[in-house]
Amino acid sequence: MDLKNKFNLDGKVAFVSGGSRGLGRACALALAEFGANVALGATDERKLIEVSKEIKELGSDSITCAMDISNPDSVKKAIDAAAKNFGKLDILVNAAGICPRVPCLEMSEEEMEKTFQINTFGTFYICNAAANHMKQKVVSENGGGRIVNFGSVAGFRARPNVPIYAASKAAVHVLTQSIAVDWAKYGIRANIIIPGQFDTDMGAPLMNDPAALEAYVKRIPASRVGQPEELPSLVIYLCSDASSYVTGGLFPMDGGLTLQ
User: Fold this and answer.
1) Is 165 annotated as catalytic?
2) Is residue 2 assigned to a domain?
3) Which of 116, 213, 219, 233 has a 20 to 30 Å separation from 198 between CA atoms?
4) Number of structural domains, the chain?
5) Does a structural domain hold residue 67?
């Protein structure tokens, strides 16, 4: 068994949504480090260009695709542009998302709709757009594709002040598992990473509140929050041939929080 080479992504083409910052950026750089060419999608094109430059410095090719994940036409245009540029699409890592911290009684309908539009509908839009290219790849090369969506520990258990975010991510968990079942016949594998608290822009409200952070960390068996560079190892596994018999899985990376 040549296990080491199963993690090799040379010649693969990946699309990373939310690739301009945080966990998305860390995943994009890791995919490039393992040999994949990477297309980046997000709303902030300036930051995308910066990350794309970092990818090229690692020896992989990269393009940027300004994209609004809540808009199906924008998503399709970005995915199609990536597939056209590289000639195929093998991998989708969907790290785009928002986390409004608003109690139920204070949340407006507009905020609720926006959260679901980005987190849940956006996941549906980008998975469908990517699958249309991965299905074609099965016919021509007997290949398939790999999809990794990002859920949240909030989708597993109640947490104060994020009810709509939690609901949107719980929907992503089940949506991804349904995709895994429906698209297995096309050679497409779909899995979900469930991040806990990481030191990122999205996690800043908690990270910048010392008292709340201290109380939260006490609930984590690992006694700390995660760093962005720790998560991509799981992404590489799920996007590589090393996980060839893995689909529909939910993979917490939370320092043991959901065990409590």
Assistant:
1) yes
2) no
3) 116
4) 1
5) yes
| Domain extent for 246 | 9-253
Tens digit of each residue's pLDDT (9 = 90 or more) over 153-181: 999 887 778 899 999 999 999 999 999 99
Catalytic-role residue among 62, 169, 240, 243:
169
CA–chain centroid gap for 224, Å, is: 22
Output DSSP code: residue 248: S
CB-neighbour burial class of residue 181 (10 A; exposed 0-12, middle 13-18, buried 19+): exposed
The type of residue at 204 is A
Query: Would you say residue 3 lies in a domain?
Result: no
The tokens for 120 are: 């849940």
pTM: 0.94
What CATH code is carried by the domain that includes residue 185? 3.40.50.720
List the catalytic residue out of 52, 74, 137, 165: 165
Residue 170, domain member (yes or no): yes
Q: Is 152 a catalytic residue?
A: yes
- 169 catalytic? Reply is yes
